[in-house]
Design goal:
By secondary structure, the chain is an alpha/beta fold. The protein has two domains: 16-155, Leucine Dehydrogenase, chain A, domain 1 (Rossmann fold, 3-Layer(aba) Sandwich); 162-303 and 331-352, Rossmann fold, CATH 3.40.50. The chain is 45% helix and 16% strand. It contains 14 helices and eleven strands. The chain has helices at 6-11, 16-22, 64-85, 104-119, 135-142, 162-181, 198-209, 221-231, 284-291, 299-302, 305-315, 319-327, 329-343, 347-360; strands spanning 27-33, 38-46, 52-59, 90-97, 125-129, 190-194, 213-217, 234-235, 248-251, 270-271, 295-296. The strands form two sheets. The chain has a six-stranded parallel β-sheet, with helices on both faces. A five-stranded mixed β-sheet has the order 1-2-4-3-5, sandwiched between helices. Helix 6 (162-181) crosses helix 7 (198-209), helix 6 packs parallel to helix 12 (319-327) and helix 13 packs across helix 14. Bound molecules: nicotinamide-adenine-dinucleotide. Nicotinamide-adenine-dinucleotide binds at residues 161-162, 165, 194-200, 217-220, 223, 238, 252-254, 274-276, 303, 306. Residues 161-162, 165, 194-200, 217-220, 223, 238, 252-254, 274-276, 303, 306 line the site of nicotinamide-adenine-dinucleotide (NAD).
Length: 362
């Protein structure tokens, strides 16, 4: 069903179609079951390069408008990530609004219903895990449709993408090091990692193996302890990570960590990490980093390993092939850095420009 509820427009601060025009949409679809408390959105931003891939969020939203905009913005992000990575995929995203009270059987019914919804797209949109969804939810979706990725490895899925994401981030970070310092090794370089959860931990492992010195911060003490024991990492309090005098800052926790308050505090030459949406304001903060002489590795290009991993599953999973393609992030980064220098524009702008030329300039 296409978006047609009058309420949505009345509640929206900016006209929804204007927002859709701005993002160069695309399609929006809704699926609703009032008895189940089920409200799902699928945003398909672009399928020019192939079937749209993107995760399914299952979180609470303050308003329907927030949920719609989140789905639209995230789906567009997936288009850009696929294109810059050279994948034959477009961008899509699903949002299921999580009810405040949720029983186990309701959760099961919601994901079964969602699976049937996804099946209706006949493969034009392929879903997978995202914030708030679990492998077990994807197993339920898989019961209703083949157009789902990232379900249980026991059922033939590719499992946790974090090691491949971390590998890609390490290759992107090496490209940044090569560009900035004209050197091919990480030996003796100091990397400050914010967040040593799934990706951050594997990244720490990759960097430690190559002789980098690590400082880590995490709100989870057990995650920090593991890095101290295994990699002899230094530890700082979560908020102090921005002040660490280091070569590279690697944000691997939250979005919007590069902002008016943090950028002036950074004491690094390079920002290269896994977190999505690192720049609080895509244009202003990309420029601020540039003005401070900090080389920024655009997030959706450097963290594409996870997408590469699930896209690989779409073709019939081969881990070596996934790692091989994630290794190409090195060349993509070089392309972005070199063009940024030639055109004297921030790297984030250049990454967007490369994608927009691929998709819209014919
Ligand atoms: P995760 O939840 O496993 O790890 C995040 C870690 O950050 C946790 O250990 C958490 O305790 C920590 N953290 C939370 N708040 C913090 C704070 N204020 N300061 C320091 N640490 C804090 O998540 P993940 O899968 O490792 O993903 C990390 C980031 O990378 C996210 O932004 C995610 O969207 C992005 N990403 C992940 C993948 C993937 O394959 N998992 C792929 C692409 C992008």
């Amino acid at each position: 069903m296409m978006v047609s509820s009058k309420r949505l427009y009345q509640e929206a601060p900016v006209d929804l179609f204007e927002y859709a025009d701005e993002l160069r949409y695309g399609e929006m679809h809704l699926d609703v079951d009032p008895d189940l408390g089920y409200h799902a959105i699928v945003a398909i931003h672009n399928t020019q390069r192939g079937p749209a891939i993107g995760g399914c969020r299952f979180i609470e939203y303050e308003s329907t408008d927030d949920a719609l905009r989140d789905a639209m913005r995230l789906a567009r992000g997936m288009t850009y990530k696929s294109a810059i990575t050279g994948l034959d995929h477009g961008g899509g995203k699903a949002v299921i609004v999580r009810p405040p009270e949720l029983t186990a059987s309701q959760r099961e019914s919601i994901f079964e219903r969602f699976g049937a919804f996804i099946d209706g797209f006949d493969g034009r949109y392929v879903t997978c895990e995202d914030s708030g969804t679990l492998v077990s939810d994807m197993n339920l979706v898989h019961g209703e449709t083949d157009h789902v990725l990232g379900y249980d490895t026991a059922q033939g899925g590719s499992g946790d993408p974090s090691p491949v994401t971390a590998f890609g981030v390490r290759r992107g970070l090496e490209a940044a090091v090569h560009h900035r310092y004209s050197r091919n090794t990480l030996e003796g370089l100091h990397v400050a990692i914010q967040g040593v959860g799934s990706v951050g931990y594997y990244l720490a492992d990759e960097l430690d193996e190559r002789g980098a010195d690590l400082t880590v911060a995490d709100v989870d003490q057990s995650a920090v302890n593991m890095c101290v024991e295994q990699f002899d990492a230094n530890v700082v309090e979560p908020d102090a990570i921005y002040d660490v005098d280091c070569d590279i800052f690697a944000p691997c926790a939250l979005g919007a960590v590069l902002n008016d308050e943090t950028i002036p505090r950074l004491r690094c030459d390079i920002v290269a990490g896994a977190a999505n949406n690192q720049l609080a304001d895509e244009h202003r903060h990309a420029r601020q980093l540039d003005e401070r002489g900090i080389l920024y590795a655009p997030d959706y290009a450097i963290n594409a390993g996870g997408l590469i991993n699930v896209a690989e599953e779409y073709r019939g999973y081969d881990r070596d092939r996934a790692l091989d393609q994630a290794g190409d992030i090195y060349e993509t980064m070089h392309q972005i850095f070199e063009r940024s220098e030639i055109e004297n524009r921030p790297t984030a702008e250049i990454a967007d420009r490369i994608v927009e030329e691929m998709l819209y300039d014919h």
